[in-house]
Amino acid sequence: MQWTRKDLLGLYDLSAEEITLILDTAEEFKKVSQRRVKKVPALRGKTVVNFFVEPSTRTRVSFELAEQRLSADVVNMQAQASSLLKGETLLDTVRNIEALQVDLVVMRHSAPGAQNFIARNLGCGVVNAGDGAHEHPTQALLDIFTMREKLGSVKGLQVAIVGDILHSRVARSNIWGLLKLGAQVTVAGPATLVPREFESIGVRVCHNLDEAIRNADVVNLLRIQHERQTADFFPSIGEYSKFFGIRPDTMKKLKPETLIMHPGPINRGVELAGEVADGKNSVILEQVTNGLAIRMAVLYLVAGCVQK
């Protein structure tokens, strides 16, 4: 199939075929990073602005490196150094960016739906690098790519997502993508962080870790997001770790080949023990590597549909 969207805003709107196209394209781009010369001219002459209104390390660096490896011209912007601090609206800021004849804006924002609003008002392409607790499509795509690469197929996989589901954009994007590709998804964590409403879309909800990870092919652990919480959702970090953290003794309850994943940054000793993060089942660093290929694929596909 052909990619026809000028934006990538989330996985909720994508079909299984579109998701698969991104994964297949990323598979080819991963080979670029394994070559002696890690660069292709796919986006030569294109200009990409990375506009991060919310702090980021991994995602911003990954996008920037992906753009450079595609030979794009890259400009990095942060809210702290933009006219937003002078009272300019977000829309006026990005319209001024577009007026400089840029082709793509990669944007992170703390407000859910900010990128959707911007994309409706811009002719250039918009790629969502995370919007509040809404979606983080490229993180979910790299997670799914890693599952497919390691286990052969996503269809039929038992995937447990454990942690702060309520505030997690990563969980939401993973859920949409995994369900569309035929995986079975379980979400687990304290009742205050895992609302039952997810059951209505075909997700199994558990508040017991052992039950959630039983027969799991993949356990994807999420960080406790204190910055998005406005109330105390559990008594203490120690109690959370006791009931929902993955430790060496927990690993004995999993199948020998179960993948351990985490989008980062890791709170060692909270979501998972250091021995687990660095253990043979962990594919956390492979996720980071695959994120580069996924973002190269997304930028390439979206840029091809921007009419400039």
Q: What does the secondary structure layout of this molecule look like, with pairings?
A:
Layout (H helix, E strand, L loop, with lengths): L15 H15 L16 E6 L5 H12 L3 E6 L11 H9 L5 E6 L4 H8 L3 E7 L5 H15 L6 E5 L6 H12 L3 E5 L15 E3 L2 H5 L4 E4 L15 H8 L3 H4 L7 E3 L12 H4 L6 H20 L5
Parallel strand pairs: 1-2, 1-3, 3-4, 5-6, 5-8, 6-7, 8-9
If you had to describe this structure to a student in words, what would you say it looks like?
This protein has helices at 16-30, 58-69, 90-98, 114-121, 137-151, 169-180, 209-213, 237-244, 248-251, 274-277, 284-303, and strands spanning 47-52, 73-78, 104-109, 125-131, 158-162, 184-188, 204-206, 218-221, 259-261. It is globular, with a radius of gyration of 19 Å. By secondary structure, it is of the alpha/beta class. The chain has two domains: 16-135 and 290-303, Rossmann fold; 137-288, Aspartate/ornithine carbamoyltransferase (Rossmann fold). The strands form two sheets. Strands 7-6-5-8-9 form a five-stranded parallel beta sheet.
